[in-house]
Amino acid sequence: MTExxxxxxxxxxxxxxxxxxxxxxxxxxxxxxxxxxxxxFTNVEDLENLVYNGLCxxxxxxxLTRFPQETRIGMLVRGCENRSVNALVVExxxxxxxLTLIGIPCTGIIDWRKVVALTGEDILAYxxxxxxxxxxxxxxxxxxxxxxxxxxxxxxxxxxxxxxADILLGEMLxxxxxxxxxxxxxSFEALTRAERTAYFKQEAERCIRCYACRxxxxxxxxxxxxxxxNTPRWTESGTTPAGTHAWHIIRAFHQTGRCTSCGxxxxxxxxxxxxxxxxxxxxxxxxxxxxxxxxMDDQTQPPFASFTLDDKKHxxxxxxxx
Amino acid sequence: MPTNPSxxxxxxxxxxxxxxxxxxxxxxxxxxxxxxxxxxxxSQAFFKKFNPGQFCQLSVFxxxxxxxxxxxxxxxxxxxxxxxxxxxxxxxALHDLxxxxxxxxxxxxxxxFPLADWKGxxxxxxxxxxxxxxxxxxxxxxxxxxxxxxxxxxxxxxxxRSSGLCMYKHDIQSWxxxxxxxxxxxxxxxxxxxxxxxxxxPDVVKQIxxxxxxxxxxxxxxxxxxxxxxxxxxxxGFPPETIFTSLEKRxxxxxxxxxxxxxxxKYICKDGPVFSLAELNALPADI
Amino acid sequence: xxxxxxxxxxNALLERWSAEYAVLAPQKAGAYxxxxxxxxxxxxxxxxxxxxxxxPKALFFPQSEAILKYKQNLGQxxxxxxxxxxxxxxxxxxxxxxxxxxxxxxxAEGDNQDPFWLARRAETLLIGLGCNEPGATCxxxxxxxxxxxxxxxxxxxxxxxxxxxxxxxSERAVGLFGGLTPANPTQxxxxxxxxxxxxxxxxxxxxxxxxxxxxxxxxxxxxxAQLSESCLGCGICTFLCPTCFCxxxxxxxxxxxxxxxxxxxxxxxxxxxxxxxxxxxxxKERTRQRLMHKxxxxxxxxxxxxxxxxxxxxxxxxxxxxxRAMLRKASxxxxxxxxxx
Lengths: 322, 287, 341
Ligand SMILES: Cc1cc2nc3c(=O)[nH]c(=O)nc-3n(C[C@H](O)[C@H](O)[C@H](O)COP(=O)(O)OP(=O)(O)OC[C@H]3O[C@@H](n4cnc5c(N)ncnc54)[C@H](O)[C@@H]3O)c2cc1C
Ligand code: SF4
Ligand code: SF4
Ligand code: SF4
Ligand code: SF4
Ligand code: FES
Description:
heterotrimer, A: 2 domains, 8 strands, C: alpha+beta, four-stranded antiparallel sheet, 20% strand
């Protein structure tokens, strides 16, 4: 057990035993190699199964909407999770008073696929430390530089620190460089239309429409998703190009000003599909047009959800030009 | 490896045409369609297999399919009747059809009522809402002079929320004149001109208290009605083997392939939709 | 009879087959492998320790497929012919080949056989590749299969390093391979050792004996809520599963076609009725359906287990849910909680 893990367990135990929360949402020891599971802890004894390390890959804020509004939730939050929680609080999915956020400055999530590509699947044990992931496989032990294993969205993370945690565990980290996320979008913008189309098609058309991206996304909490709606039907069903294109374009648009760029969708995808370039592009537009970034606080409405009388409406034909 | 080279496509509907279309209820939520066959061979194939209690998948091309219970008996003529409650996209499209319009049909599907096992028995038929449609088919079947001697007494109890929602009105009215059956109709709340029963079907059943002697009871209705009627019959002394009901589940293929309509290991489309209470009691609670 | 194929002769063989058959083999597709038309030996992924990510069931039962054409207003129907194709599927793993035979019980037996499945099945040969080093998520030996099982295969290859040992299992395969050198006793023995070692390397994932009854007994118990707590309700474990067969039928009005798409019991809308009633309202009931279908209902339908232990659902579940552990937990729950009171 790492020091951080011990601290989390202690905090979680305190919150539960003092009756401050009804449940602690964190991670549980894995059954399958390298895959700690999101878990809901309701009693102190069970906390011996709580784990925390770089392989904890899910955005736990996703589970916020599973609980009734009155449930008092203790939740482990890294930078992106904290921002997702904020965005959900803005959208009134849970009241902030009912939440106790246990914040952890995040050194980045390790992509298990990158690990097994190097070690093979037969993993007996592993240890995650500041700079190295040590993996004991059946035939060999590997010491892998952590930085090379990080998930791509973590490599361009700007805000690794939890912004509004109630309890902070671990040392605050330096902020990331905003240029990283901008550069990726700008290099995409610089492509020709044909190149952009080709890239989009190559990603979208591998999609098997399992909707793991949607289900892993904290902001995709609609009771009825547009793809499931049948009167009228908005998109073609199935995995035809028309169907997969529509799915990805419309899902991205529904995230405008809401996506916190956590990358949970990409980590969940069974087909390695990368679509955060679309949501990041929309995020950049939101910043450039409205100086708004999703989840930076739990008060500010996203521009597309708010209404002001002096809206410039420059999206409208004949709207005021800024 | 099985090597049946090219069986017919079981998802291919038979071409049908709307013969008659009329509303059953004053609020226009229920509409009856009577369909004729485009090809005589399809008609022959249909009636060779058809048994009351079965259903078909009706296709509106461009909209999709909906499973619907057959509401007519074979002797009524060379057509198939359905009564359709307007719910979502397909049922709306079915409501929009006019006489002469084409549509598709797959069926008959499912097991239907086990009529052979019911020979010589008294039948207590209990229906509520639009699910009465297959019971109407059953009653029509039994009423035919050729079939009537196969069964003992015939009691029909039919409830609807209001008189405006009562289906097959004229025909059912004529049943009161028959001396080979007993009819009871009920609505949920009193209305000025209504001179039959008032109350929920399970209560009406208790009040009428049909005898379980040499009888089978067949119950089709909304889930809540079925839920309370089944125990009412049990307390009247009907053993679970003599109580039958028809189940509904979301369906697609209708032939036990697409997986979705199961309760435990039974596919409602193929092994049902008609089950005895004894069979239901043996299934897991997945309803 | 067992034969030897030197690895350097594989390419010529695949090319020879290509003249008469469509040859499909696991080939590189981005970071993973997928059954694709054979192009070049350098593209083959035969050394991976496990099966392809996307299941080869799709070669017989594509994820989206037109099953009917019509003219909307005229009500005219046009059948879609299911045309048999001569195909060789090369390098399929034993778990996936067995899964094809399991799906035969759904699509190719009894009433209403599926013409599309039958057509694709009729003239397709399955040439299997055994697994020398089964992966950590594989558990075929716990599910009545194994790394060198031959169910559904026309031939089985075992990788001996420089060459493959080939076991011919059907008349069709004899014709396909033609003149091969018989394996010598040493080669036969090393294959036997290798196969045994692979089988033994796989630990028992759970006790299959009596598992069905145990699951039946916990059907209405709370254990399912515990097991499904973190489940996302996505389509991964069922879409990637080589034995899942659920489908939806949808009209694509703008193309005048009715299509069949894979569907899954893990989706909320799968069982949602028009009245808004849903018999499986939460992930608890849906997870229960998935596990019960494979480990209980399949026995009743086909007298067989509906899981071949291919490990995909374990490997790709985005929240790390492991069907082996889920079954162990359900089973333990039955022994402890249920028998305690
Ligand atoms: C065996 C059986 C017999 C039935 N008999 C009748 C009848 O005689 N009269 C009648 O009015 N209704 C009947 N129903 C219910 C009827 O099938 C549904 O109301 C209808 O399918 C709703 O389809 P929709 O497209 O209008 O609704 P939507 O909500 O748009 O449904 C979309 C799709 O979901 C499926 N679906 C949704 N709800 C149901 C459901 N309850 N049952 C089956 N599939 C569903 C259908 O495939 C439909 O295409 C029966 C259902 C079953 C299973
Ligand atoms: S998770 Fe991947 S495959 Fe699944 S729907 Fe999303 S993009 Fe498509
Ligand atoms: S893959 Fe995992 S998260 Fe997705 S439905 Fe299956 S068990 Fe649930
Ligand atoms: S249930 Fe899982 S292990 Fe079993 S066959 Fe399906 S994907 Fe493979
Ligand atoms: S019911 Fe679920 S587990 Fe069974 S075949 Fe369908 S998707 Fe797979
Ligand atoms: S409707 Fe497809 S299996 Fe019952």
